Amino acid sequence: MASFMPIQYPVATDPPRALPRWWRNGRMATRMGLVFAWTFLHLVVRLTLLPLRWWAPPSVDWRIREVIQKVWGRGTQRIMGIRVKVIGKEPEDPYFLVSNHLSYVDIIAFSGCVRCIFVAMKEMSHWPLIGYTVTQMQTIFIDRMKPRDAVRVNEAVADALSNGKSVIMFPEATTSAGDEVLPFRGAILDAAVRLKHPVHYATIQFHPTPSCPFPTRTVCWVDETPFGEHARELLRARRIDATITFAPEPIQADTRKDLALKLEAAVRAQLLGENPALPSP
Hints:
The protein is α/β, with parallel strands linked by helices.
């Protein structure tokens, strides 16, 4: 496994400017409206082009989906003030990619730089507008409360890979504050083992900024805070900085357990070796 030289990111030590609450609320409301409008526009485009599936080659539909996802991801990042720095290169199709998991914002960050299908929590499918949109983007949903649902998810992942499509998932199956990597669940890696498919890995990290000095609280979704409340606070932050790092070499193993352990160790080494500990509020 390739070694990485630690990269030191500046930590926001100056307190954010004290903006009036009405100003921050106005920013939040404006962004929320723009995100919904932007998402609705891309949903309309996606639905309009769906009939192409009936006569065009599958590769055409996949290419359309890829373009729509990346344009939506980059536009949403811009609306929300998210700046993503990418280190390394996206793997060649069809690839199986895993990453650590910090927040639903991970999907927005990755959407702008990958062309793969997401494996996401089932709850997301019920979110207003966004849920229906990501469903149309062929997202594979997993019910985290039903361990046996992993069987269905593995079949969907295997089918996607066998048809030349790439997949990204978060094997922790929950979120962390970014200062640790939680145990990877081998059950959802079964497709890679059965197909003897190499698994690539990436890491995502959010960094302190003057307007978001504690991303462990503002961006990372790690407690029982309701989604709406967390999203509103997130949209009030003027700028959010993130780094996505793609590892250069994939990992393979003969069993799910070994694969999970190897990937977990590699992600932990890359994540904690590249980023300093984030300040806590």
